[in-house]
Design a protein that fits this description.
The protein is an all-alpha fold. Helix content is 62%, strand content 1%. It has a two-stranded antiparallel ribbon with strand order 1-2. Helix 12 runs antiparallel to helix 13.
Length: 583
């Protein structure tokens, strides 16, 4: 037993009587229940996804004319462009899966609550307040490259608040997984989603810490002399790597965990080599570490993509692709092995009768694999051109909308598709009701089809017309279409990408409508403890679990107790007291 374990157990109230939860809405203000904190993260992140998609559509349609800005003006364009990245990454992608992890991981590892529950609540409220301040800074023309100096510094403070809040939440999830597992559950027996959450949480701590330090330096320089900033225009290139690949791969590792949970439940068996499953997820997180590149990837003329360093960048994409391909191969082989396996009860999911969660899990995994392949191709082409092998005078793809295409694959494709899978899979456990499958299939079609168009438009435009993604000079985009090879093709492809974002927005709207009707209005079918025939420990509990600390927790020795019971003759895991300090 370690001191960290004891402290974590005490922080969640497993050694002392926990404070009773106020079941009313006012109880949300001082809640220390991981379930309520997770719901708050999930709900608000979906709202911010709408805001990010709307502004992204404005940016893409603004690029659909060679006569200049049509929807926005120059100054507004730069602000909306940057806000889109902040909203989609720090407003939706990271906090959504952080919220799911805060809710689900303690249930999966047999913990009475998330570690440092008050800190987890602080993480949510800090994130929400910081995002509000961030929006205010943009409204006041104070984002990067903004015209209001005090607002520029306000933006940096708000972004630092977002980063610190998400780091705190990531620490809570990581400590829960590492130190609060039920006695007998070792790390190599944890459920796939809990492991993926640990991988992402660990990488967020080490990578977002770099962002935080960089923001401190930028704030000091902006306030006292600007020795290495080019006015307000030197800020964005130094933080742009947070919104690009390979860093984006870190944010979507939980999607792989969601996909593995659902696929294995449909297959009714564990993979033949569990350590390989964990290893491939870890590879994606490891090779997604983009902080090392920092200003180099974004800065024009930088040497980071030249010579041996260029090979390293290519290697990052190759490693991420190998991890994703290996994971999908493991899951595919497991499904093939289980093709004739009987279902335990009529409601159990299967590949012969897929529901929205199964389809979305499959689609999300494919989007990540395609994103890794597209990134590998782009990095290889850039390295060959700049290193003097096959130089044709073209701009590196990393300065074109090719980058926007990669972002679309991972944020809209993998991120939103993975979110759809997680919502339909765990809605019974989170809210006690199933979501509508009809609306779910419509959401799947809209998000999937829209994400493909949102990817194809900018990717083809960047590859064949060299349409710039962003220019880091002052003024930022004096003429949007200067130097383009084919203006008409760039216009049309920008429209294709914009239409794709609109379709994605319709899909997100359907998801919110589904939640409102099925959960908010109580129209969804009430769920029992295990409506899907799940394998992992959360399906042993009521749907949803009662507020506050449970009176008893399952005695776990693996991450698949329901599968173990099915194979061993329906042996139900025994119960234990929550006051037991986890091993």
């Amino acid at each position: 037993m370690t001191d960290a374990t004891t402290e974590a157990a005490h922080s969640t109230g497993s050694a002392v009587a926990p404070q009773a939860e106020d079941p009313t809405a006012f109880g949300l203000l001082n809640t220390a229940d991981h379930k309520r904190i997770g719901r708050l993260f999930i709900g608000f992140s979906l709202l911010f996804a709408v805001a990010g998609a709307v502004t992204d559509a404005l940016v893409r349609f603004d690029l659909a004319s060679d006569s200049g800005h049509t929807v926005l003006n120059l100054e507004t364009f730069t602000q909306v462009f940057m806000f889109t990245r902040d909203a989609l990454v720090f407003g939706m992608l990271i906090p959504f899966f952080l919220g799911v992890a805060i809710y689900i991981v303690p249930l999966q590892v047999g913990a009475p609550n998330v570690a440092f529950a008050r800190a987890a609540a602080l993480s949510f409220w800090g994130w929400l307040v910081s995002f509000g301040v961030l929006v205010g800074a943009y409204i006041g023309n104070g984002g990067p490259a903004g015209g209001w100096d005090a607002g520029v510094r306000l933006h940096m403070l708000a972004l630092a608040g977002l980063v610190m809040s998400l780091i705190i939440g990531a620490i809570c999830v990581a400590v829960t997984t590492l130190t609060m597992r039920a006695p007998g559950m070792y790390m190599d027996r944890t459920p796939p989603f809990a492991w993926s959450a640990l991988v992402t949480a660990s990488m967020l701590v080490v990578s977002l810490g770099v962002v935080l330090g960089q923001l401190v330096l930028l704030y000091i320089d902006h306030s006292y002399g600007r020795h290495f900033l080019d006015g307000n225009y030197g800020i964005w290139p130094r933080i742009d790597w947070m919104y690009r690949t390979p860093q984006l791969f870190i944010y979507v590792v939980p999607v792989l965990g969601v996909a593995a949970e659902i696929v294995l439940a449909a297959a009714r068996r564990w993979v033949f080599e569990p350590l390989a499953l964990y290893f491939t997820m870890g590879l994606v997180g490891l090779f997604g570490f983009g902080a090392w590149a920092n200003f180099g990837i974004a800065g024009e003329g930088a040497d980071i993509v030249d010579g041996l360093e260029g090979i390293v960048l290519v290697g990052l994409y190759a490693g991420a692709l190998a991890g994703v391909a290996g994971l999908l191969a493991l899951l595919g082989f497991t499904v093939w092995q289980s093709r004739n396996r009987p279902r335990p009860h009529p409601g159990a999911v299967s590949w012969k009768r897929p529901n929205t969660a199964v389809l979305a899990a499959f689609g999300a995994g494919k989007f990540i694999a395609v994103a890794a392949l597209v990134g590998l191709i782009g990095a290889g082409v850039d390295w060959l051109n700049i290193a003097g092998r096959g130089v044709d005078g073209n701009a590196p793809l990393r300065f074109t909308t090719w980058v926007t295409g990669q972002q679309s694959l991972l944020i809209y494709g993998a991120g939103l598709m993975g979110a759809l899978a997680a919502l339909h899979w765990w809605a019974p456990k989170i809210w006690g009701r199933r979501l509508s499958e009809f609306v779910g299939w419509a959401s799947f079609a809209a998000i999937g089809g829209g994400a493909v168009l949102a990817w194809l438009g900018p990717t083809l435009s960047g590859a064949f017309t060299e349409q710039p993604q962003f220019v880091y000079n002052d003024p930022l985009l004096t003429t949007v279409y200067d130097g383009l090879i084919d203006h008409s093709a760039a216009e049309g492809l920008s429209v294709v990408g914009g239409v794709g974002v609109i379709i994605v927005l319709v899909g997100v709207g359907l998801v919110l409508l589904n939640l409102l009707v099925s959960v908010g209005m109580g129209k969804g079918a009430e769920a029992d403890a295990d409506p899907w025939g799940g394998l992992t420990p959360e399906w042993l509990l009521d749907s949803p679990p009662a507020l506050g600390q449970s009176a008893s927790l399952p005695q776990l020795s693996s991450g698949t107790p329901l599968l173990d019971a099915e194979l061993n003759g329906s042996v139900v895991p025994a119960e234990r007291e929550p006051s037991e300090v986890p091993a």
